[in-house]
Design goal:
There is one protein chain. This protein has a single domain (about 1-170), classed as Spore Coat Polysaccharide Biosynthesis Protein SpsA, Chain A, CATH 3.90.550. The protein is about 25% helix and about 20% strand. By secondary structure, the chain is α+β, with helices and mostly antiparallel strands.
């Protein structure tokens, strides 16, 4: 989880929200972004780099202002696209990005990688995370743009879980943009 030092109270709420789910004791690394929003997004880069040290197939990149589906761990572990290792990059949060396809059987939307915005809850394969870290400075923009555009270069579809398993909380954007939420968040949905 990447969080901004100035938003400690919001981070605590997010950790409490995650603690109210079935997440249990799955390891969580919290990366502090001391200076707020900046173009290099060093906190996001360091979060992904740290994730590469863990013994896992996937890295779940979270922001610090979230609510979660009660069954998030169950739903992730039972998502067909995770079980078949079909995901290079996926999101558990859909702020209404442009869809190019739908996979009803796998509860997924396929999205145009150049319409992606918002990095509230990205799921990256370890190989994709390594690629993103190696090429971080070859794309400009915030972490949502860098991660999605770099993942697009790998040529695999980008999936969004349907319904969204994560919701953006709060009332304003930390970096001054417009605030968005997932229209299809379901706190109780269980596969």
């Amino acid at each position: 989880m990447m969080y901004y030092a100035a938003r400690n109270e919001l981070r605590q709420q997010t950790l409490g929200n995650l603690g109210s789910t079935d997440w249990d004791n799955v390891p969580l690394h919290v990366q502090v972004e001391d200076e707020g929003w900046n173009e290099n997004r060093l906190g996001a880069y360091l979060s992904l780099k740290k994730g590469l040290d863990c013994d896992a197939d996937y890295i779940l990149f979270l922001e610090d202002d979230l609510d979660f589906n009660r069954h998030i761990r169950h739903n992730l572990f039972n998502w067909g696209l995770v079980k078949t290792r079909a995901i290079t990059l996926a999101s558990l949060y859909n702020p209404r990005v442009r869809e190019v396809g739908c996979d009803l059987r796998n509860n997924a939307r396929i999205v145009d990688p150049y319409s992606v915005f918002g990095s509230q809850a990205f799921l990256l394969s370890k190989d994709t995370a390594a690629y993103v870290v190696r090429h971080w400075n070859k794309v400009n923009g915030g972490q949502d743009i860098r991660i999605s555009r770099l993942a697009a270069r790998l040529g695999d579809p980008i999936f969004y879980h349907a319904p969204s398993l994560v919701q953006h909380i709060g009332r304003r954007s930390v970096w001054g943009g417009w605030f968005h939420q997932a229209a299809d968040f379901d706190p109780d949905w269980k596969t």
